[in-house]
Amino acid sequence: MLQFYLNNQRIRTEQPAGSTLLDFVRYNQHLTGTKIGCREGDCGACTVLVGELQPDGQGVRYQSMTSCLTPLGNAHGKHIVTVEGINAAAGTLTPVQQAIVEKGGSQCGFCTVGFVMSLTGHALSHKPATPASGLAAIDGNICRCTGYKSLERATAQLTAQLEARPAENVVDWLSDQQFVPTYFKDMPGKLQTLQAELQAAAATNQQPATRNQLLGGGTDLLVQRPEQVRAVPVELLYDQQHLRGIRQQADGRVVLGAAATAENLRDSALMNALFPRLYDHLKLVSSTPIRNMGTVAGNFVNASPIGDLTIFFLALDARITLETAARQRREIQLRDLYRGYKTLTKEADEQLVEISFEAPAPTDFFNFEKVSKRTHLDIASVNSAAWVRAENGVVQQARLSAGGVGPTPLFLTKTAEFLVGKAISADTLTAANEVMQTEISPIGDARGTAEYKRLLLRQLLFAHFLRFAPERLSLRELV
Known about the structure:
alpha+beta; Ubiquitin-like (UB roll); 3 domains; 5-stranded antiparallel sheet; 35% helix; 19% strand
């Protein structure tokens, strides 16, 4: 049985864990403020807030998520907030709603609820409220009417109001200012009680001998096969707290739990110290609600030839740890996970539990590039990452990866080997591109012709090295 709080009501349900939170909210609970739009996580009309009790006892952390792609099982033990649950009293507007009204941020109104919930999540955020964070909060919401400027003005007004938000007792202040109702103050205690009950119940339940189908954030499977996911018992990767950490071992290797999300990576002080441009890299990976949901392991085992996180970690020569239901483990290189298109070397009962990679040295170069029809919130036409260690302008070691140019995510072994010992120059990169073109086999599809994708990958190779060594290269001599 799944148990959670929906607004201020405790829910107990036997609905399938693989069904969507959106359908449960609308059709089971009849809360129709949450809208059905694209059902693919693109439009944001179905945005809700998911509050999770923090293990360090620092209250409840709320994140915006698209409920069309949120498995109902991921609500277990949490606080789910829909638009019906944010007003202090009937007939009154919250400051978020008032800002949208005052700035003319709503016309047809279909998308409005999603913007309201995303901006309410911005108000509840543990991060400082800045103009940039305000706009980032609504990067997963689409409006077809307003041209966005009115919504941007509403966001700026709200962000200015949030400058007075204290660093501590945030929910108390937000409640006093009527951003959220007073019941939010009680939610940490309610979730603690609920978690204790769930843990006690789990301790008495016998674990199944076989592993159910594993489901991560739902950002892919609930787009492609929602009915199939609903019909079978699933085990939720996202809810396995012990698989969500990010740490560095004594030997220098960085270890990620498989359930770490893209936003966990972007929030990690360790990852940001190792990759100073990480925020910009991951900004290219979908929108805030999707990054809040999509797991690293899910991106890997999806086996998409253009998986952004897969390409990122291939260039780091990451290793993955697989575990059977009997707790037997084996470790393989990420590059060895892919046998063919959407085909893995992983056995059916194996679960990906950890990802690890050698931490780059401060003098190493790392870069991730992506080209898509839209800059953000889109699937890549071609993406690529590169790690390079150079001395006096000569490449000592290199690793390159590429997506969208073959049936699997590609680790470009020959190209990397060719670069070793070569001086970074336009001639070297031109020759490296010739080698690289022999390692790829793109096909034409909706995202471009094969010839176009070959050209894109060449440009991304040049882009990597223009960022690595701008003093040795110029765009003019490369193109």
